[in-house]
C-alpha cells in the first residue's frame, strides 16, 4: 500500500488489485452478518480497519464507505435476491460500492434533491445527476437517491433508493474530481439519462428512502469523525518524531519548547 500511494494520488484512484487483496485479507464487510456472506464481527472491529488506514496516512482506499456505509443499506433493506447478488461480490472486493446522495444543488439538504425516477409499467426511468461521489469512478454498483413522488405531503415522503449497476444504459460517469486532499480516493460526477431500471432495482420500499437514510447516516457521521481523529493522531505522532530530530540553535526543536 505505502509503496503505491504516490502513484495512486497521481492517478486519482487506487488499483483494482488492492480491492481484491483487501477482500482476500478479510478487510471488507467486517461487520456484515455471516448469514449474508460477511465476516460477522461488529462495528468496533470495522473501526480497527479504517483507523489503521489513517495511522499510516493511507486515505485513498474507500473501504469504510464500501463496507460500513453502502453494504449495510443492502443488508438491512435489500431483498434476498439483492443481498445474494451483491454482498458476496462486495466482500471479495470484485464489486465496489458507492452511494449517490449529493447533487450540484443539494448537499446536506437531502430533501432538495432533483434526481427523479418515474414509473413506466413495472420499470423505472431515472434521470438526474450526482456530484462528489466517493468510489464513484471505480464503482460497480451505486445506491442512487431519487425522488419518486413529487406530490408527496413532504419531500421526505417521496424519496426512494435504487441499485444501479455500472454498464447500465444511460448511466454515465463524468470526470474524476480534483480535491485539496484525499487525492487517491476516486470522487466523481455521475449522470443518469433515461436509465431504465427493473422493479428489482428498488432498494427497500417505495418512498421510504429518506427514512433509510436517516437511520444509516448517524453511523456514517461516526465513521467520518473516527477517521478524522485517527488522522489527527497520525499527524501528532509524525510531528512529535520530527521535533525530536530537527535541530535549531544547537538543540532539537522539542527542547526549545
TrEMBL record:
Q: Enumerate the spans annotated as Acyl-CoA dehydrogenase/oxidase C-terminal domain.
A: 207-255
> What superkingdom does the record give?
Eukaryota
Question: Could you tell me which residue ranges the Acyl-CoA oxidase/dehydrogenase middle domain spans?
Answer: 98-195
Show the GO cellular component annotation of the record.
Answer: mitochondrion
- Record's keyword terms, sorted: FAD, Fatty acid metabolism, Flavoprotein, Lipid metabolism, Oxidoreductase, Transit peptide
Tell me the GO BP annotations in alphabetical order: carnitine metabolic process, CoA-linked; fatty acid beta-oxidation using acyl-CoA dehydrogenase; long-chain fatty acid catabolic process
Identify the Pfam families for this entry.
Acyl-CoA_dh_1, Acyl-CoA_dh_M, Acyl-CoA_dh_N
Q: Which PROSITE patterns match?
A: ACYL_COA_DH_1
According to UniProt, this protein's pathway is: Lipid metabolism; mitochondrial fatty acid beta-oxidation
InterPro entries cross-referenced by the UniProt entry: Acyl-CoA_dehydrogenase, Acyl-CoA_DH_CS, Acyl-CoA_Oxase/DH_mid-dom, Acyl-CoA_Oxase/DH_mid-dom_sf, AcylCo_DH-like_C, AcylCo_DH/oxidase_C, AcylCoA_DH/ox_N, AcylCoA_DH/ox_N_sf
Q: Keyword Phosphoprotein, does the record have it? A: no
Q: Which reaction does it catalyse?
A: oxidized [electron-transfer flavoprotein] + hexadecanoyl-CoA + H(+) = (2E)-hexadecenoyl-CoA + reduced [electron-transfer flavoprotein]; tetradecanoyl-CoA + oxidized [electron-transfer flavoprotein] + H(+) = (2E)-tetradecenoyl-CoA + reduced [electron-transfer flavoprotein]; hexanoyl-CoA + oxidized [electron-transfer flavoprotein] + H(+) = (2E)-hexenoyl-CoA + reduced [electron-transfer flavoprotein]; decanoyl-CoA + oxidized [electron-transfer flavoprotein] + H(+) = (2E)-decenoyl-CoA + reduced [electron-transfer flavoprotein]
Location of the Acyl-CoA dehydrogenase/oxidase N-terminal domain: 7-94
Q: Which cofactor does it need?
A: FAD
GO molecular function list: flavin adenine dinucleotide binding; long-chain fatty acyl-CoA dehydrogenase activity
Q: Is Flavoprotein given among the entry's keywords? A: yes
Give the family, as the similarity comment puts it: Belongs to the acyl-CoA dehydrogenase family.
Entries under PANTHER family matching the protein = LONG-CHAIN SPECIFIC ACYL-COA DEHYDROGENASE, MITOCHONDRIAL (PTHR48083:SF20), MEDIUM-CHAIN SPECIFIC ACYL-COA DEHYDROGENASE, MITOCHONDRIAL-RELATED (PTHR48083)
Return the protein name: ACADL protein
Its encoding gene is what? Acadl
Amino acid at each position: 500500500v505505502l509503496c503505491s500511494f504516490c502513484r495512486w494520488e497521481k492517478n486519482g484512484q487506487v488499483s483494482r488489485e488492492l480491492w481484491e487483496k483487501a477482500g482476500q485479507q478479510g478487510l471488507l464487510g467486517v461487520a456484515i452478518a455471516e448469514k449474508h456472506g460477511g465476516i460477522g464481527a461488529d462495528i468496533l472491529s470495522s473501526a480497527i480497519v479504517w483507523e489503521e488506514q489513517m495511522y499510516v496516512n493511507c486515505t485513498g482506499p474507500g473501504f469504510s464507505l464500501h463496507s460500513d456505509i453502502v453494504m449495510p443499506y443492502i443488508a438491512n433493506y435489500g431483498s434476498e435476491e439483492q443481498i445474494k447478488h451483491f454482498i458476496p461480490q462486495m466482500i471479495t472486493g470484485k464489486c465496489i460500492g458507492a452511494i449517490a446522495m449529493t447533487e450540484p444543488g443539494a448537499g446536506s439538504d437531502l430533501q432538495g434533491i432533483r434526481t427523479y425516477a418515474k414509473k413506466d409499467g413495472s420499470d423505472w426511468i431515472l434521470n438526474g445527476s450526482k456530484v462528489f461521489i466517493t468510489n464513484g469512478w471505480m464503482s460497480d454498483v451505486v445506491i442512487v437517491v431519487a425522488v419518486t413522488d413529487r406530490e408527496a405531503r413532504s419531500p421526505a415522503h417521496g424519496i426512494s433508493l435504487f441499485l444501479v449497476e455500472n454498464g447500465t444504459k444511460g448511466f454515465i460517469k463524468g470526470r474524476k474530481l480534483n480535491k485539496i486532499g484525499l487525492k487517491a480516493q476516486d470522487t466523481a460526477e455521475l449522470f443518469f439519462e433515461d436509465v431504465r431500471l427493473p422493479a428489482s432495482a428498488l432498494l427497500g420500499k417505495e418512498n421510504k428512502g429518506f427514512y433509510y437514510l436517516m437511520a444509516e447516516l448517524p453511523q456514517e457521521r461516526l465513521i467520518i469523525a473516527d477517521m478524522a481523529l485517527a488522522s489527527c493522531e497520525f499527524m501528532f505522532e509524525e510531528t512529535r518524531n520530527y521535533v525530536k530530530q530537527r535541530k535549531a540553535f544547537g538543540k532539537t526543536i522539542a527542547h526549545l519548547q
